[in-house]
Write a structure and sequence with these properties.
By secondary structure, the protein is α/β, with parallel strands linked by helices. The chain has one domain: LmbE-like (Rossmann fold). The chain has 9 helices and 7 strands. It is globular and about 45 Å long. Keywords: Hydrolase, Zinc.
């Protein structure tokens, strides 16, 4: 089975591209905290302010502004050096999934891919990014904005000639096992939406152990208070209630897919030098 443990000694720059505030907490927070602790420059980019997310807010409060403030709090907990919002409209999600018909005119899903990619490529070029994370082609669980992150991010990496592109995902097999454990504490949790989401184990190339950064990852999740309250079954809220030792077990690994690597590749660090095909 191909493998490598060699890592470059010099600090590098990693750009994490997400659709909405709180996506970084769910998928890549541990990796971001780890890289920052190792001395690498970590940059967080979001496509939208997440203004169409569910939340309980006082009258007149702008959800988008609140969620961006939460994003900065999350970024601080993870050690990010910079936060960028590309400023597209949150496309929302139709009931039952799919593209919402009442989405705003400037929604990210309707953005021209080439134009959006150029905007992201400007950040990559300015930062001299060595690595960009996006999502898998299906957008994880299929949110339209997540699918667009894959399209825009992949093209931006081409334009900026960013050498490493990792698709942030979840290993579907342990995810379902982990959710089964969580469901013992919260039987109301519906796991059916995850049964075909994300990536199967055989496609995963990077398995990053982030258990040492569970505190930072949990702080990142907690920063997004609007997305953790308002319903007993909010995914983020349920995750934050998981006891510490179990939290480290269930959420202690983050997964990525790097296309073009030999089958069976297993790497443990985003900057690990891949084996030759």
């Amino acid at each position: 089975m191909p493998a490598s443990t060699s890592r470059p000694p010099a600090p590098r720059t990693a750009v994490f591209f997400h659709a909405h505030p709180d996506d970084e907490a769910l998928l890549t927070a541990g990796t971001m905290a780890m890289l920052a602790a190792e001395g690498h420059r970590v940059v967080l980019v979001v496509a939208t302010a997440g203004e169409r997310g569910q939340a309980d807010l006082s009258p007149g409060e702008a959800l988008g502004q609140t969620r961006i403030a939460e994003l900065y709090k999350s970024a601080a907990a993870l050690g990010c050096a910079r936060v960028v919002n590309l400023g597209y409209g949150d496309s929302g999600l139709a009931p039952g999934g799919g593209v919402a018909e009442d989405r705003p005119a400037d929604s990210f899903i309707d953005a021209d891919v080439e134009e959006a990619a150029r905007r992201l490529a400007e950040v990559l070029t300015e930062e001299k990014a060595d690595l960009l994370t996006i999502y898998d082609p299906a957008g994880g669980y299929g949110h339209p904005d997540h699918v667009q992150v894959n399209r825009v991010g992949a093209r931006a990496a081409q334009l900026a000639q960013t050498p490493i592109v990792l698709e942030a995902t979840v290993n579907r097999d342990p995810l379902l096992r982990g959710l089964g454990i969580v469901r013992r504490f919260y039987p109301q949790l519906d796991v059916r939406a995850f049964e075909r989401a994300y990536s199967p184990s055989e496609e995963i190339t990077h398995r990053v152990n982030v258990r040492r950064f569970a505190r930072q990852k949990r702080a990142s999740m907690a920063a997004h208070a609007t997305q953790a309250t308002g319903a007993d079954t909010r995914t983020l809220g349920v995750m934050l209630k998981v006891p510490g030792p179990l939290y480290r077990l269930v959420f202690g690994t983050e997964w990525y897919v790097q296309r073009g690597l030999p089958p069976g590749t297993r790497m443990r660090h985003p900057f690990e030098i891949p084996p030759k095909a």
